[in-house]
Amino acid sequence: MSKRNLHSRARAAIEVAQRYGFCLVRHKRHLVFRHPSGAQSVTSLTTSDRRSLVNFEHDLRRKLDRA
Question: What is the mean pLDDT of the chain?
Answer without folding.
Answer: 89
